[in-house]
Amino acid sequence: MKTNRLKNLNRLINPKNIAVFGGRDAEIVISQCKKMGFKGEIWPVNPKRKEINGIQCFSSVRDLPEGPDASFIAVPRLPAIEIVKELNAMKAGGGVCYTAGFREVGKEGETLEKQLLDNVGDFALIGPNCYGMINYVNKIALWPFDHGGEFPGFGAAIITQSGMLSNDLSTSRRSMPFAYMISAGNQSVLSLEDYVEFFSQKEEVKAIGLHIEGLQDIERFQKGCLMALERKVPIVAIKTGSSAIGNNLVNSHTGSLSGTDEIYNALFDHLGIIRVTNPHEFLETLKFLCISGPVKGKRVAAFTCSGGGATMLADYAEKIGLQFIQPSKKVGEKLEGLLPLTATVSNPLDYTTPIWGIPEKTRPVFNAFFEDEYDCSILVQDYLPPNINELNKYYLNDAKEFINASRKRNLPTIICSTVPENNDQKINDYFVSEKVTPMQGLEESLNAIKRSFIFNNRYQDFLNNKVRIKSSLDKINDKPIMLNEIESKAIIKSIGLGIPTFKNEVKLFDRVSSKSNYKCNLDFPVCLKMLSNKIQHKTDIGAISLNIKNNRELLSELQSIKDKVENSSIKNNTPSICFTDNFLIEEMQAEPLGELLVGIFCDLQFGYIMTIASGGILANLIEDSVSILLPASLDEIDNALKSLKINKLFSGFRGKKAINRKLLLNNLKQLSDYTVNKSNKIQQLEINPFFVYSEKNVVVDAIIWKK
Asked: Judging by DSSP bridges, how do beta strands 55-56 and 70-73 pair with one another?
C-alpha cells in the first residue's frame, strides 16, 4: 500500500470529522454515527437540502471547512466520481463509496470505475458498491443500515466481499466481540490485502475474519497474513465460489476472479489460515480465538448434567481427533467420594442434577477434576428464556465455580449450549467480561478447539517459511514445449529420482515391425509405449501395452498400438497430432506398496503448485488429492501426505512393509526445488504413476512442459 494512502486509511478508520454526501442514506449514516456516540464533527453535503438530521448542509465539496478525514458517498455514479476527485484535491483522508453500478454491471460500469480510479490519487477509498466501515473501538459507523455488535475491549476485524453478509454477521446474537467491520465491495482502490495488512497491526484485534470471493494480489495477501502471524493473530476465512454455479455468481457479483477451491485450500494451509464453511462456524471460531486464544493441545475436560450431552461430546470429539483423557486413578477416587452414587466418573463428566447448582458440592468436583492436566475446558449449559428463567441462577452458580476452578489452571474456558439459541445474552456478556467464551452448539465448540489447536501446533512452521509466493513470475509461453517421455525422464533422473532400470538404459527404435528377427535386450516382462511429445495420456488412446512376455508379443503389440492410435486419431479427427513411429521399451516394475500421482504447474496468480494424489486406478476411483503451494518445506509435504487416504498404505498396512517415508519426502522436495528454480524453465510436470516401495521409489511415467 502507498505510504500516503496508508496514512489516509488510518484517518478514514479513525476520523475526527466526517463528510456525508447524499439524501436518505446520508440521514441513516448520520443517525448511526450519533447512535454509536461519535464525538467529532459531521458535515452533510447536499445542494438541495438545508439540513439533515438537524445538521446544516454544505452545498458542495468546495464549501467544506477542510478536507475531511472520512466521507460517505451515496450519490449517482458520475457525481460520485467528481466528488472523489475533489476530495483528493482537498487532501481528504478517505471514504466509503456506497454507490453501485460500476464494474459489477458490465462494460459501461468498467469504464466508469476506471474513471473513478484515475481520479482517486492517495484518497483511501472503500468500495465502490459496498456498505462501508464500522469502527467499534472508537464508535464510528459509515454504514447505511442498523447493525449490531459490541466491543468489550478486544475483538475481531472482519472483512467481507458481500455487504449483506457483513450486516448479517454484525446483527448475529452470538456474543461475538467486534473490533472492526469492512464491507469491501469492488475493491477498486483498497483491497482485502490492504485491510489484512492494516488490521494485523492493531493491538485490539485478536483475530481476523475474511469472507473471500477472490484475491487480487497473492503476494501482498501473503505479506499481510505473515504480519498477522508474527503477532500470532489467527485468520479465519470463508471462501465462496467453489462450485461451478458459485463461481459464476462470484464473477457476476463483484467481478472478482475466483481461483479453484483446491488452490485456495493450498494457499490457506500455506499461511496458517483457518478455513470454515458457514457463517455460524465462522463466528464461533473467531469468538473462541478472540476470547480464549489458540489452545496448546487436544486434551479437553468437559462437564454436563446430561448423559446424552456427554455422549454427544465424546462421539464428535473422537470423530475430529480431540481427546477426552479419562481421570487418573488418584483423581477418580476423589471424584467417587464427591459425586452422587448415580454418577459415573468419566470425561466428559455428567455430574448429575442432585448436586446441580449447589456451589459447596460442585466446587470440590471441579477442583478435583482439574488436578489432572488438560489443555481446554468446557461446561455445557442451556439457559432458559427470559419468561421462565427463575432456574438460571443455579446454572450461573455452576458456571462461576467452573470458571474459578478452570482459571486456577490457566485453561482456555468455554461455556457452550447444546442448542445454539439456548444462550442468555446478559449472561453471555458476563462470560465475555470474564474472558470465558460463550459458545453456541456442541459441534461448533469442538470444531473451534480443534482448529485453534492446529493453528497453534503449526504456528512456528508457518513463520519458518516466509519466502513463498512471488508475483514476479516469468511470462509463461502460450505454447510451452512438451517433452517426450525419454526427455522428461532424463530430467527426472538428473534431479535424483529413480526411473525404471535397464540393461542398456531406455531403448528407442524405429519401425521394428519390419524386423521379424528383432530381439529385445531387456528382461521380460516389458512394457511398450508410443513415444511422442503430443500424447499426454497414453492409456486413453491405446498408446501403451503392459506385461509383454516375449519378442513375438512385442512385435504383435507394436502393430496393435499403431492401429489403436491411428483409429483413435481418425475418430477424434486428429490424424497427424498423436501418431509417431517411435516407441519406448522398458522393464515392468514390481507391484509397489502404493502409487502416487504428482503434478506441478505454474499458476499466474498463485505461483507454483504441487498436487499429490492417489495414483493408478485409485486416482479416479476415490478422488484422493491435496495441493500445496511451492516452495514447500518437508513438514508441509509430510502434512499433505498425511491428509491422503492412501497414507494408511504407507505405514505397513495389513502386514505389508512400510515405505521409506524420508526418501519419499526428499524426492518430492527435490521435485519442488528443481521446478521452482526459474533457470530450469519448468512450467508443468506430471508423474503418473510414481511407484512407492520400502527401499526405493520409481517414476514409471512422466511428462514435462518447458517454457
From this structure: unpaired
CA 451 to CA 287: how far, in whole Å?
A: 13
When pLDDT is cut at 50, 70 and 90, the band that residue 417 belongs to is very high
Cα–Cα distances in angstroms (integers) from residue 218 to residues 9, 138, 153, 221, in the given order? 21, 31, 32, 5
Q: Residue 95 belongs to what domain range? A: 1-138
Number of compact structural domains in the chain: 5
d(CA 229, CA 472): 24
Q: Which three cell numbers stand for residue 295?
A: 489452545
| One domain, residues 252 and 346 | no
Those residues whose C-beta lies under 8 Å from the C-beta of residue 572, and which sit 6 or more positions away, are none
Average pLDDT over residues 419-425: 84
Looking at the structure, tell me whether residues 325 and 357 fall in a common domain.
Answer: yes
> What pLDDT score does 62 carry?
95
**In which residue are the cell numbers 500500500 written?**
1
Close Cβ partners of 215 (under 8 Å, ≥ 6 residues apart): 192, 193, 221, 259, 605
* Site of grid cell 462461576: 400
Task: Tell me: pLDDT of 465 over 70.
Answer: no
Instruction: Give the residue among 121, 40, 130, 50 at the shortest CA–CA distance from 87.
Output: 121
How many residues belong to the chain? 707
Residue 100 has pLDDT above 50, yes or no: yes
SS3 115: helix
* Pairing verdict, β 526-530 and 507-510: unpaired
Question: Which uninterrupted H or E stretch holds 618?
Answer: helix 618-621
